[in-house]
Amino acid sequence: MYPHKLPSLPYDFSALEPHIDAQTMQIHHGKHHQAYVDNLNNALKDHADFHGKSVEELLGGIKNVPEAIRQQVINHAGGHANHSLFWAIMSKNGGGEPSGKIGDAIKSSFGSFAAFQEQFTKAAMGRFGSGWAWLVLGNGKLSVINTLNQDSPVMNGQFPVMGIDVWEHAYYLKYQNRRADYIKAWWNVVNWKEIDRIFSHHK
Ligand code: MN3
Fold first, then answer.
1. Residue 77, in any domain of the structure
2. Is 159 helix (H, G, I), strand (E, B) or coil?
3. I want to staple 116 with a disulfide (CB 3.0 to 4.6 A). Which of 43, 110, 151, 158 is the partner?
4. Could you tell me if 62 and 116 lie in one domain?
5. Co-location of 197 and 131 in the same domain
6. Is the domain of 180 the same as that of 109?
7. Alpha-carbon Rg for the chain in angstroms
8. Taking 80 as the threshold, does the pLDDT of residue 203 lie above it?
């Protein structure tokens, strides 16, 4: 709802060390995510009809957003929604393999956790330029996709269960051009408990 606000991080900037460094978290959350929120609010300022809508509602009904601000809403509501999910699905005590409903669903959809992990990593590595890789739920089925820039799966009627930011700003300070090393390290901070909660809640 307008004005949209930056959610606070559910942990300290240094909580994901050594996998994701504190400086990256600080800039990523405090500067990049804040900018998506500010730019979204700027875009919506003179469009009161849309002030009552959540970012998911804006993105899900993107065709109803006036053309003059549509691309800004795609970029900044997308950026806001994507990052809000991203912070939530990481944790200091993350990693390992999922259990619960999401663990079962991953096994039945992909054959094994290892097969899922390989497919997801490939989607994250294969995203040329800036974007995201996702595990999404659509028509009751789990699948792995990637999206360009801040495009949200919600625009295509898909529900994002988890996602990894592969914009260079997510890893460049610590990993420079080594996206593969960042993705490998990222698996150690994946918060499966929260992902299971998100997935179970949605189903
Ligand atoms: Mn980012």
1. yes
2. strand
3. 110
4. no
5. yes
6. yes
7. 17
8. no
pLDDT digits (tens, 9 = 90+) for 58-93: 999 999 999 999 999 999 999 999 999 999 999 999
Residues 130 and 43 in one domain: no
Q: Are residues 68 and 27 in the same domain?
A: yes
> Using an 8 Å Cβ cutoff, are 156 and 137 in contact?
no
Residue 113 has pLDDT above 70, yes or no: yes
Distance from the alpha carbon of residue 40 to the mean position of ligand 1, in angstroms:
15
Tell me the H-state helices in 10-89.
22-27, 34-44, 55-60, 67-88
Cα 170 to ligand 1 centroid, rounded to whole Å = 5
Q: What's the predicted TM-score (pTM) here?
A: 0.97
Is residue 93 a part of any domain in this protein?
A: no
pLDDT for position 202: 86
Domain annotation covers residue 167:
yes
pLDDT in tens, 12-35: 999 999 999 999 999 999 999 999
pLDDT band for 197, please (50, 70, 90 cuts): very high
Quick check: 10 and 88 in contact, CB under 8 A?
Answer: yes
- List the domain range (segments joined by +) for residue 73: 22-88
Q: Enter the tokens of residue 92.
A: 């200091």
Which CATH number does the domain housing residue 191 bear? 3.55.40.20
Q: What is the DSSP letter of 138?
A: E
56 CA → ligand 1 middle, Å: 18
Same-domain check for residues 28 and 62: yes
Distance 172 CA to ligand 1 centre (A): 11
